[in-house]
Amino acid sequence: MEELKINTIQDALTEFGVSDNTLSSEEKGHLDEQGYVIFEDLIDRDWLEEMRNKFEELIEKEKGGTEFVFGTENGVRRLSDLINKGEVWDRVWTHPKILAAAYHVIGREFKMNSINARDALPGEGHQKLHADWRARQADETYTGINTLWLLDDYLLNNGATRLVPGTHRFTGAVKDYIEDPMAPHPNEIIPELKAGAVIVYNWHLWHGGTQNRTQLK
Ligand SMILES: O=C(O)CCC(=O)C(=O)O
User: What pLDDT sits at residue 132?
Assistant: First the structure.
């Protein structure tokens, strides 16, 4: 068998099927300008079903689920370290679109950090606007992305994520710009999407879970 030689990030990307055309120029532009890009129907029906089943199986096994950064979040089912909890998640971080987006934003070698899951139950889930990395300095280049894999539809009232387009370009922290990070932001959007979509965002982009207002009286 021929030995696989991977010496550079380019070798690794090629091995995973990434080419210059994996992202369209519109997709790259959106990521650059708005700080995020949406891939609709990235997860096919069988894979979606498999991920949903695995999620429920793990929640059952872990008695409701916890998450390592925050511990627990009230009324939210969370799982962490999914990379070590089933082959179904391997396709998440090896997907060519995701790797291409990571390389486009970071522009050099990078590594996978973690795969976690989050599901806000009715009445819960509202988070502060936050970035997923420390405040960026003026001379600092972008260092990472995060991705949201939709196992359920994103609706305006079911706890979908709010994003504030363009904020990845700001230096400093969210608190340097707004007084109340829990409050609605005038520029925030909640993308309404079907399960199976994936949102990729620069990890400096301000975002946060919203309250799941379904089944509330
Ligand atoms: O689930 C979401 O809507 C976003 C979660 C998030 O940003 C976080 O937990 O840090």
Answer: 96
Whether 1 shows a pLDDT value over 90: the answer reads no
Tokens 């990070």 found at:
181
Cβ-in-10-Å burial (0-12, 13-18, 19+) of 9 comes to middle
Does the residue 8 lie in any domain? no
> What CATH number should be reported for the domain holding residue 65?
2.60.120.620
Ligand 1 atom closest to the CA of 120, numbered from 1: 1
Domain that holds residue 48: 25-209
Give distance in angstroms: CA of 21 to centre of ligand 1: 30
35 lies in some domain = yes
Number of domains comprising the chain: 1
pLDDT of residue 69: 62
Within 6 A (CB) of ligand 1 lie 118, 127, 161, 207-209
208 pLDDT exceeds 90?
A: yes
Q: For residues 107 and 162, is the Cβ–Cβ distance under 8 A?
A: no
